[in-house]
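Predict the 3D structure for this chain.
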Amino acid sequence: MTASYLRSVTSINNVRCIDAGALNLTWRELSKMLVNEKFDLIAIANEFGTVLAFKRFIEYARRLSPESKLITFGRLSYQIPKFFERYNLDAIVQSGDFEAGVATYVEWLNGKRKDTPGVSVNLKGKWTQPELGIFLEAEDWAFPDIKDIPYEAYDKLYFDDTKKFCGIPERRELVILIARGCPINCHFCEIPQQQGLRERRRPISAVIDYIETCFKQAPFEYVSMYAPTFTLDRLWVEDFCQRLIERGNCFPWKCVTTIFHLDRELISLMARSGCVRISIGLETLASNSQKTLPRIKHTKDTKFDELATWCAKAGIELNCFIILGLPGQTLDNAKYTIEKVRSKGARCRPTIYTPYEKLSSDMDEETVMAYDRQFFLQKLSPLEEAEFYKLAFGEELNPTRVMSKIPSKLPLQQV
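Done. Predicted structure below.
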């Protein structure tokens, strides 16, 4: 998506998008690319899980492509932008939309801008302090060019459902950014800081046109509607579903939302339009560990039971995001929530609570990496910690079968 947007910037002639991790590129392959491509600018995505490799890549880029400008963008530089000042970078995107930040820096380099909102620039060792970054309106977002995305590699990531990746095993996924921003403002979520509290949402016609175009160009089998809270705008969702039903080409799709933004009528409509999975941020059913959650996420057992019944009757798989290690949560609390979810035939996807507010720019790479939602950072007894890790990474008792509702286009051996 960032690459597609940059291609629309008049001063940019060519953009190459590389997912080195998914493609499992070796350092030698990256070295050859850096030497031979002669990039004017290299935009490097930063993430918690890749921070240890980040320093090494910067070293490679500076030695093998010394004329290239280097800018970084991503979740981590929005949390602790000054952390990246230790590296030999030229610019850091720290607020606003990713693609707008990179484009802003390009325009500044080309003399078309005097300021760089959302982007800190290295001026001979001194870093500028930018104004708030640019948050684009949804109509200005670009759609990804599917040729940029290594779908065959992603198929392999999703093939084993027990690995808990977001994709559906054995089926080719088309991901579409529907909306950015979330007013719910959960304290453990980086979305409000990264995307803002105001939701911005694509026009329905543009979404449907893009889906139909992509399905004609490649063997996609279902669509993942990415939005922090897909059903936040009920009227949009109702209109979207009705249009799909009227067109008679209800491709399978899935989404993420909250219990608060669902009811029986809406779930039924979503099912008729092709929805096969609804994921919800359930977090916990224990009242003592709901105290730190927004009010709309204080879910009672009876409400969850009701939702599970609605989804089952509609033929939609219910996928529940559970947080382990919430403040005030006990091991028994966590076990109860997981057992309750499974007792209703729903799928449970646990993740580990991470106190992002404790991140600091003066941390070393190893400490920052620990905030990648794989470790419990709070103090637990050895026995508690071992039991919590079993809940987080133990065997999945209810593996998905939702792929049986999605017609296959690819021979299994290709996956």
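The chain has a mean pLDDT of 94.
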